[in-house]
Amino acid sequence: METAPASSWRKQNASYNLVGNKCEKCGAVYFPSRIICKNCGRESKLKEHKLTGEGEVYSYTNITAPSDTFKDDAPYTVGMIKTIEGPLVEGHIVENGKEVKIGAKVRTVLRKMYVDGDEGLIHYHYKFELV
Amino acid sequence: MAGIVGYGAYVPMYRIKVDEIARIWHESADQIKHGLGVKEKSVPGRDEDAATIAAEAARRAVFYAGIDPQEIGAIYVGSESHPYAVKPTAATVAQAIGAGPNMTAADLEFACKAGTAGLQMVMGLVDSGMIKYGMAIGSDTSQGKPGDALEYTASAGGAGFILGKDGTIADILATTSYTTDTPDFWRREGIGFPSHGGRFTGEHAYFKHTIGATKQMLEKTGMKPADFDYAVFHQPNGKFPTNVAAMLGFKPEQIKQGLITPSIGNTYSGASMIGLAAVLDEAKPGNKVLVTSFGSGAGSDSFVLEVKDEIERKRSKARKVWDMVAKKMYIDYAIYLKTRGTIKLK
Amino acid sequence: MRDVAIIGVGLTKFGERWETGLRGLMAEAGLAALQDANIGSDEIQMVYGSTMASGRFVGQEHVAAMLSDQLGFKNVPATRIENACASGGSALRQGYIACASGAVDTVVVGGVEKMTDVTTSEATTALGGAGDQEWELAQGITFPGLYALMARRHMHEYGTTEEQLASVAVKNHENGHKNKYAQYRKLITIEDVMKSKVIADPLKVFDCSPITDGAAVVVLAPLEKAKKYTDTPIKIVGSAQASDSLGLAQRESLTEIKATRIAGDEAFKQAKLERKDIDLVEVHDCFTIAEIMAMEDLGFYKKGEAAKAIEDGETRLNAKLSVNTSGGLKACGHPVGATGVKQAVEVVWQLRGDAGDRQVSGAEIGMTHNVGGSGATAVVHILKRVN
Known about the structure:
The structure holds three protein chains of three kinds. By secondary structure, chain B is of the alpha/beta class. Helix content of chain B is 36%, strand content 23%. In chain B, the strands form three sheets. A nine-stranded mixed sheet of chain B has the order 5-4-6-7-1-8-13-12-11, with helices on both faces. Chain C contains 14 helices and twelve strands.
C-alpha cells in the first residue's frame, strides 16, 4: 500500500511526537486529536496537547500474520498503552530484550513504521520501548 | 565562546560478533580481531536508520540540555547513510524534537567526519550571534559489502551535541581542520556499498590527516599531549586510533574512555562523536579533551575542549555510552542479513 | 411501524468457491431465496445489497444494482450498505425499516463477499479497513491483532484461558460438521486449536474465522401479506443497532463490545422478551474471544463467566442455549458482507424446523448478532416463529 505523501505528513505531529489535544472546557485528553470533544460537543474548546509518551502496557499481541505493508517485518509486537495522561494509545513495542507484559512501563522512541517500496517515502512513527 | 550545553548518544542494541561473520567467509576470526582490534559491532534494527538514530540522540541531547527546542536555530546531520538521497534527515530530526520552523537545517556528508564538520558550522553560527543554540549530529547505519573487510566493522550509532554560549558543560577552546583530495574510500550515487583502496586507507589517508589536524591544533594552542586528560581519535577500527595516539605521543590511558569501536564497530559519522560523549559521561570540571575526527576523501577536524562545572549538575541526565555498549542482544548472520534488508524478498 | 416477516431465504455453499465470482454467488443465493419465498422477480420493490470490501477484493463497487440486475428485478431502487463485517446485519435492518415503515412491501436483502481472489495478506489489508485505518492498520495492527488485544486483556481481567478460547472453536466445528453449507465440516479438538499456527497471540489460526466466498439473501414482506407467499413466515420482533468509536483505543473497555450491549438491550426491549426466552443465537464469532464477549455483552452471562460456561458445554447444540448452530463465522465461514444475512438465514431455518441434524428442538425464538470492525457497529435481530 503506497501512502499519499500528504496523508502521513498531515498527522506528523501526532505520529512523531504524540501530539493530541485537550478540551479546556472539560479537561478530556484525546489521542489522536479530535475536532469535537466527546463530552462538550459544539461547546468544545480543544487545544493542542503533547503526551509524554510515558505509560504502561495495558494489552499486547505479537503479530505473526501481518497485512501486506508489514509482511517483511513479522513477527512484531503491538501494544495498547495506557498513557499517564489517560488515553489508551496503540503502537509497536520494539524489541529490547525486556519481557512484554501487562503493567510494564514504556516510553516512546522514533522508528521507521514502513517504507513505500524502493522509491517511495519512508514513514517514521512513534513506537514504544519497555523501560 | 561556543560550548556544549547538551549531548546525547544512541547505539542500537543488536550486535554481531566478528567470529560469526568470519564463520560465513571461512576467515580466521582471531586474525581479524587482532588485526582490526574489533570484537563485535552494533547492528540497527529493521526499523532504524540514520534518521531515527539521529532523532534519538537529538532527543537525549535536548533532555540533557534542558532547553526549549524552539530556541535551536540550526540542525546539521552528518551521515554517509542518509535514508534519502534527496530529502533532509535534519528536517525529520527537527520535527522529532519539536524544533523549528524558524531555524536552518541541512544534511552533511564528508564520510566519517560529517558530524564534526557540522560542529564547526554550528560553532560559527553561535559565536557570530546568528543563533542561540545549534545542534550537530553524526549518525550512521553504515554498510559493508558482504565478504568485504568493511563488513567486520561497519556498524550503527550516533551522537548529537547542542552548542550555545550559556550553561555550557564544556567549552570549545579551538578547532582546526586538514583537508586534501584523497581517494581512500568512496561510494558512487545509487550504489549500495562503499568501495575502498584497501591498505591505501592507512598512511596517506587516516594517519596523514589525523596527525595533520592534531599537530596543527597543538601548535595553535601551544598544548602538549600530556596537557590532556582525554583524547578521542576517529576510530574506524581499534588499531588505527591506538597507533595514531602513540605516534602523536598520547598514552593509552588518555584514549581508553573514548575508544568505543572495539566494542561496537565503526559508527562512521557517529564514531568520534560517540567517543566524545563517552568522555563527557565521566569528565570532571577543568579536564581538557582533544578530539580529532577523520573522514575519507579526506579530512580531519580537531577540537580542544575544557570541561566546566555545569557538567556535574547535568550528569544524572546523561544516558551513558558505556551502558549502551553493554546493553546488547546478539544476532546471527542470517538475522543480520534480514535485519539489514540484504535478503531479497521481492 | 408494521410487523415485518422474512418470507424466504437463500444461501450459497460457503468456502473457497474458485469456480464462482461475485455475481455468481449473489445470483445463486438470490435464486434460492426467490424460490423459497415463491415470489416473482417482478414483485420485488426494493433491494439492499451488502458487501464490505468488494472494491478491494474484486474491484467491483455498486453491488446492489448488480444484485438487482442479476435477479431480474425491474429497475427497483437498489442501495449498497457497508458497515464492515456488520454490513449484512445493517442491510437487513435497513430492509426491515423500509418495509416496516410502509414505504415498500417486498424487499430483498442480499449480502455477498468474494474474498479468495486476493492473497491472504491482501485480504488482511482489506479487512484492516474495518478498524481505524490511520491509527491501527497504518501501524500494522491487523484485525486479528485488535481482537488479540481484547483477548489478552480479557484473560488478564477474568482469568480466561487459551483452552477456553479454543473450546469455542471446537463447539462451532461440531455444529459446522452438521451443516452442508459450512466451509469447514471437520471436527476438531482443543489440542488441534492449541497447536495451530499463531496469528496474533493468544489467537491462533483456529481461533479465527476463515477467508470465505459466499452470499446470503432474504426476502422481507409485511407480516399481514406474508401468508400469501409462505406457510412459515418468521417475524422480526426486534431490530437494533448501535455504534461506538472506530478505534479500539477510544473505547471505554477492551473486554466489552459496548455497541453489542446497547443493541442487545434495545432488541430485547422491542421484543418484550427475556434472555431465557431465546432458543438459539447466531453470534459474531469472527474470533473465539468475540463469541465469549458476545455471550456476556448480550446478557446471557455475567462478565467473565461465559468462557467457563462455553468450556462446560452450556452453549452446545441443544444444551442450555444453542449458540452458532450454523457453525458460526468460525466453521461455517465469514464472507464478511454476507455474514449478517446468513445469520438470519440460519435462524429462519431453525425456527421453521428445517435445520436437519443440527435442529434445535422446539426452537421458537432466535437471535442474530453481527459486529462491524472491532466493535464500532453492532446489529442485533430477534426473530420469532409465527404460529
